[in-house]
Amino acid sequence: MINIFGRSIRAPSSLTRLIFLAAISVSLMMLDHRGHHLEKIRAGLNVLAYPIQLVAAAPAYVGGAVADFFTTRGTLRADNEKLLAERQMLLAKLQQFDALEAENERLRRMLGSAAQIADKAVAADLVEVSAEPFTRKVVVAKGSQDGVYLGQPVIDANGIMGQVTQVAFNVSRVTLITDAGHAIPVLDNRSGLRALVFGTGDQDTVKIPYLTANADVKEGDLLVSSGMGGTFPPGYPVAQVSKIVNDPNESFLAITAIPAAHLNHGKQVLLIWPGHLAKDGGRAK
Amino acid sequence: MRLGPDGRRRLTFVGTFAIALILAITPFPKWAEAFRPDWVGLVLIYWCLAVPERVSVGTGWLLGMLQDVLYGSLLGSNALAKTLVAYLAVRLHLQIRMFPRWQQAAAVFALLTVNQLLVLWIRGTIGQEPETFSYWTPSVVGGLLWPWLFVILRDLRRRGSIA
Questions:
Q1: pTM of the model
Q2: Cβ–Cβ of A21/B26 closer than 8 Å?
Q3: What fold does the segment set A120-285 form as a domain?
Q4: In A, residues 211-250, which contact B (CB 8 Å cutoff)?
């Protein structure tokens, strides 16, 4: 018996409550999946959940700090040498890049197209928390206050990582290209073949379904984003084809590829605003 | 600071659930991710078996919602699964309490599997089901951990003077 406003009524049974709460859950799921009506509610709840995320991320930060503290002088010197060498290489490449970019722009002007290559990019720290098991999502420490928007492309130094799928005030969640619910339109860099790259839920493989046995694709081919669909800017590396299985019993090839971006490494990602040139020219010259 | 029996009781519940939620999202090394048990489910099952008149369906739903927000999964998917697990645990608590420890672990494994199966169905419906068999390892690990977790939580329950 419970007492409500002075009147005693029987407490609802376990089964009644189960049915009631299950109904609420199902309606929430429908609203969330169909209409994205719950973004505001989720953003609000995210603010409540932020302390838990911070506590959960603490061991990783402490671990990182301790590891940094015990880095020896020798390691630092080796790192420094490696980085200097890498910088030399990159600078050498960049000399050419400037000339090529100018040439590309000239050619595009001749063609009358206004595509821009340089995109505005902002680095964002990863908040080290795990997502739902067997989904591939990461949380980054930039949110709507920094101008992050739904569907924004996220890259690292090696290629496309994924896109922003939830935005809260100071954090947002990025679905990686390996997530089972993610697909990205690509071009085969060698043959120009168009395809879709799907995530598998596995940590370091993606798959390319729906290509028939006569498709011009080879092991080792680099797949770059095609820019179709408008979410991702064209020309960024996405994955490299690692295995092609042609089973005569299946109507399509079973193609697996390895993502170009280092999805499991590093503490930072780059959020990009395609087509917005940064005020300082987009990159160091 | 001295807490009354009520305060201690509340601290025990909130504390164990908070620790379970934190453990659910603390980053592990890549190879260990697949072996992470469903801490929230395990702790929920324990309290449902031990004190079904205090922790039951409503608590399960609330924990599931928190999990959905922390995971960024479809809002309500884990909530539905945890509600069902709590219901089954409360419904069967008299039988499961009588089981020897290994059989109890098997029952917990079954409950965790129900939870995972429901989440898998929901994710399949929206086209996001994972395609690896290692999806099921967390339930197995959860079942194997149960005897030890049971002892720890029983001790906490006695300290928290929860009947």
A1: 0.73
A2: no
A3: Thrombin, subunit H (2.40.10)
A4: none
